[in-house]
């Protein structure tokens, strides 16, 4: 069964639209306060720099500032050469050629070419040095506004998205266990499910990285559950692949035992996924959640096969740790996860 990876919600799209509009509006107000002669560049910069994540916004802002400073400096040199008697076309190309080479080497500097073209092809009626200086000031204003808006206005709710993805990934892990135990799918299909789980895990890790940038305080201090989420999920994914290999190579001989085992594991994983759904909604799981989830996990005495008893001990240990982890019982469970048999 394919894993349904959550896409961007309508709320996310609306929040991003609002943030871009706020950035443009604040840039216009700041441009008026600074009495910029060509405020359009500040507004354009704010619109371009403001991205859906703080990380992307910072990266775009750095590129804009770097390009504006390099282009501004190159423009001042080219204009000075023109003032000294060099023809305008020659002065322009004397700046464009080295900047093109620099942009090919360091793509984040490519906006320097734009600054030079604006300064040389659209000169001001005032001082010839006015346009590049104004361009740099406008870019700085737009970037600063974009950064402030990204941190202060409806920034992406990374915790919610991380746990929504975690729920989808855990249900995918359940599909791996169920398919391998019943031999409904082959190893190729199991690997495809594992690849999809890995995609979820990468997106979760990206959300956790974004959450680290949202505040100055350490994520481990303000939200230890979110900080430890990728490692805990990776452990369950590894356990699932160990189970799948064993199930395909050496299935449980007693059909009744196999049914009970798989039904219990998939049920427990569904309970874990529901716990992640609750966390995504900003709620703690219900009081009876831990008891019901733990009760669903089969014990290793369900089978006499030593290899399956070992695998079940691993799964029970890590699933128990994850269930306690979702109820926020603290460092004990994270230590339990990292110290499970599968980690050794």
Automatic annotation (TrEMBL):
<keyword id="KW-1133">Transmembrane helix</keyword>
<feature type="domain" description="Integral membrane bound transporter">
    <location>
        <begin position="29"/>
        <end position="149"/>
    </location>
</feature>
<keyword id="KW-0812">Transmembrane</keyword>
<keyword id="KW-0472">Membrane</keyword>
<feature type="transmembrane region" description="Helical">
    <location>
        <begin position="133"/>
        <end position="154"/>
    </location>
</feature>
<dbReference type="Pfam" id="PF13515">
    <property type="entry name" value="FUSC_2"/>
</dbReference>
<feature type="transmembrane region" description="Helical">
    <location>
        <begin position="65"/>
        <end position="84"/>
    </location>
</feature>
<protein>
    <submittedName>
        <fullName>FUSC family protein</fullName>
    </submittedName>
</protein>
<dbReference type="InterPro" id="IPR049453">
    <property type="entry name" value="Memb_transporter_dom"/>
</dbReference>
């Amino acid at each position: 069964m394919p894993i349904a990876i959550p896409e961007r919600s309508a709320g996310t799209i609306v929040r991003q639209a609002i943030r871009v509009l706020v950035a443009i509006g604040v840039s216009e107000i700041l441009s008026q306060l600074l009495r910029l002669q060509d405020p359009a560049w500040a507004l354009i910069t704010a619109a371009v720099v403001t991205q859906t994540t703080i990380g992307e916004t910072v990266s775009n802002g750095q590129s804009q500032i770097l390009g504006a400073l390099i282009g501004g400096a190159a423009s001042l040199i080219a204009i000075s050469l023109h003032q000294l008697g060099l023809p305008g076309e020659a002065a322009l190309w004397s700046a464009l050629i080295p900047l093109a080479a620099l942009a090919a080497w360091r793509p984040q500097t490519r906006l320097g070419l734009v600054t030079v073209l604006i300064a040389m092809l659209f000169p001001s009626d005032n001082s010839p040095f006015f346009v590049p200086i104004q361009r740099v000031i406008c870019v700085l204003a737009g970037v600063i506004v974009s950064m402030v808006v990204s941190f202060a206005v409806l920034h992406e709710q990374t915790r919610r998205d991380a746990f929504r993805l975690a729920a989808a990934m855990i249900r995918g892990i359940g599909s791996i266990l169920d398919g391998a135990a019943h031999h409904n799918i082959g190893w190729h299909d199991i690997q495809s499910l594992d690849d999809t789980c890995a995609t979820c895990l990468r997106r979760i890790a990206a959300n956790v990285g974004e959450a680290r940038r949202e505040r100055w305080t350490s994520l481990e201090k303000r939200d230890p559950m979110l900080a430890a989420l990728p490692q805990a999920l990776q452990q369950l994914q590894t356990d699932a692949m160990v189970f799948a290999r064993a199930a395909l190579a050496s299935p449980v001989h007693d059909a009744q035992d196999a049914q009970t085992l798989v039904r219990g594991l998939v049920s427990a994983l569904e309970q874990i996924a529901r716990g992640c759904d609750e966390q995504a909604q900003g709620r703690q799981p219900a009081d009876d959640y831990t008891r019901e989830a733990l009760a669903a996990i089969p014990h290793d005495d369900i089978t006499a096969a030593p290899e399956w008893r070992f695998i079940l001990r691993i799964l029970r240990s890590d699933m128990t740790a994850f269930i306690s982890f979702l109820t926020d019982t603290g460092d004990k469970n994270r230590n339990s996860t990292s110290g499970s048999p599968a980690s050794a």
